Amino acid sequence: MLAILLTAALVPAAQAQNPGDLSPARVAEFKKRFQHGRKLLDEGKPEEALAVFNGILKEVPDAKGSLYLAGFANLQLGRYEQALVDLDKFRRIEPKDTLGLIWSIQAHQALGQSQAVETLRKELYALRNDGHEHLAK
After folding, report:
1. Plot region of 89 (φ>0 → left; ψ -120 to 50 → alpha; else → beta)
2. What contacts 72, CB < 8 A, 6 or more positions away?
3. Residues 62-106: pLDDT tens digits?
């Protein structure tokens, strides 16, 4: 759970690719909801946290922080296919984020998808060799 505390603190709540589409009041609302979801994750309540993140994603489908932590919550709940859906969307926005990549590897491992695991491990190794670590901000 410490990893969640450290990494989630770096991920904005509703950082959409087109932030001009959201008023400051809406952004503040999403941040408040996102922080509540993070708190639920920290308290070991991934199901409740996932409901918060999914609610944000219904309104802002490219909210990268919510994609990121929805993927993690789904991973915790053993919903590996859905975790990959969320993490793949996140990784399209943040392709050099190593923790998102690691979580994708874990989901593929749980599904027994060894070829995908090997491909992603090579990608992770290349990112780390290029000096990239966890980049979600």
Report:
1. alpha
2. 4, 41, 46, 83, 103
3. 999 999 999 999 999 999 999 999 999 999 999 999 999 999 999
